[in-house]
Write a structure and sequence with these properties.
The chain contains three helices and 20 strands. With 428 residues, it is mainly beta.
Length: 428
């Protein structure tokens, strides 16, 4: 763990040793292509598509298939399924946005369509409705309601979400990248150089009316009034009662996909064996409390340095994970990333991310998983981005037959994977 923290601090200090630029709150609410207007209605369509070729290899990997240990292929060479996202946005003047999107294919379900988000974002109430009496309140706050990503950290603005990959300078995401959608509501205050959010949800990805299912709570503050620096802090908690059929949602939902096909996994043929190949998915149990702090710095022209540090505790694993005993989880996770544009169309990037478990199910079971990534990106056009990346990931320290951290791979075997992956992403 010590050498990983040193590497993390080195990347951060290396980046901040330079000077000058301007950082601000990440903004990745792409409006898509405007396809029509009628009176004060504007209809826009967004499309994201991705294609990848990978030359990856893995070692010391065995996966629990429900009845026995299975050994997947060591060499994972070839082309992945092409994935896509389709987005729809209707804007009512500048007052209300109505948004929904679908995932046309994912790593877990490469031949199926899955719903993703659907929500309303309200800045004021238009027209002559009696609800316009609320407009003095909307002068100070915005309201977001529906089924959408909890605003925790900056992951929904900076990581790959299935085929929507332009926001991510590299091909893969950090080894832990929490992104959970659930029905709920957020109240947002946008001040001059600072802001805050408070919200809640049902603590599960879809409607759930069991008495054992409880509500989640979340909050966030951010600051970008300091020149060259953006800072944020986030908090999330949920505590379902015994008997709920679902685990917590924030860290475990990886239907949005990992960029590395088949790693630390049984297969990738649509059978649904594991979500997010290679991703660590802590907090699978009934209870979860987590916080995260983020820093983003634009240090000089073309340069961005970003880092996050978080901690989580929970009881786990998922109640539906048969054969794995109940217990507690405690972990910290962190990432440092640097991107430098060499000209308007070409950049270099590197990232180190890790998750360190203090406890997994028992006090004598701890360990770490880290991921190192280095690569480049070049914009062929404004809408087409070609990326290449070398990745290395390894686990160490866990007891034998430890599963449930990264799907059902046995982390006690100290598995690893490495190799090169190419990606072409199209986004409108």
């Amino acid at each position: 763990m010590k050498h990983r923290i040193i590497t993390f601090l080195f990347l951060l200090i290396f980046g901040v040793s330079f000077s000058q630029a301007q950082a601000q709150k990440p903004d990745y609410n792409r409006k898509g292509i405007e396809v029509g207007t009628f009176n004060d209605l504007t209809f826009s369509l967004g499309l994201h598509s991705i294609g990848r070729v990978q030359v990856l290899s893995q070692d010391n990997v065995r996966v629990w298939d429900g009845s026995d240990w299975a050994t997947p292929s060591d060499n994972l060479h070839g082309m992945q399924t092409s994935f896509a996202n389709l987005e729809f946005l209707v804007s009512i003047g500048d007052d209300i946005d109505v948004f929904f999107d679908g995932l046309l294919a994912t790593q877990r379900h490469p031949s199926q369509w899955w719903g993703n988000q659907g929500y309303m974002y309200i800045r004021s109430i238009p027209g002559n409705s009696f609800l316009t009496v609320l407009n003095p309140v909307f002068e100070h706050i915005d309201l977001k309601a529906g089924n959408f990503f909890a605003d925790f950290g900056e992951h929904q603005y900076t990581r790959t979400i299935n085929a929507d990959a332009h926001r991510n300078p590299l091909v893969g995401n950090p080894v832990v990248a929490p992104l959970g959608a659930e029905p709920g509501m957020e109240i947002i205050y946008n001040g001059n150089g600072f802001g805050a959010m408070i919200g809640g949800g049902i603590g599960a990805p879809e409607q759930d009316f069991q008495e054992a299912r409880k509500y989640s709570f979340r909050s966030k503050v951010w600051l970008d009034v300091i020149q060259n620096v953006y800072l944020s802090g986030s908090f999330y908690t949920v505590n379902h009662d015994p008997g709920t059929l679902r685990g917590t949602n924030l860290f475990r939902r990886e239907r949005h996909g990992s960029s590395y096909g088949g790693v630390w996994n049984m297969n990738n043929d649509g059978s649904g064996t594991g979500e997010g190949p290679g991703q660590v998915r802590p907090g699978n149990g009934r209870e979860l409390t987590a916080w995260e702090v983020n820093a983003i710095l634009n240090l000089f022209e073309g340069n961005t340095v970003s880092a996050f540090f978080g901690q989580g505790t929970g009881s786990g694993p998922d109640p539906n994970t048969a054969g794995v005993p109940e217990g507690d989880e405690e972990w910290i996770y962190y990432s440092a990333e640097v991107r430098q544009f060499l000209n308007d169309n070409f950049y270099l990037s590197g990232r180190f991310s890790s998750v360190d478990y203090n406890k997994f199910l028992s006090s004598d079971n701890d360990g770490s998983i880290y991921r190192a990534q280095a690569g480049f990106g070049t914009f062929i056009t404004d809408n087409i981005l070609l990326k290449a990346e070398y990745v290395y990931q390894a686990a160490s320290g866990f007891n034998q037959e430890t599963t449930g951290v990264a799907n059902r791979v046995d982390l006690g075997m100290e598995p690893k994977f490495q190799g090169i992956i190419l990606e072409v992403g199209v986004s409108f």
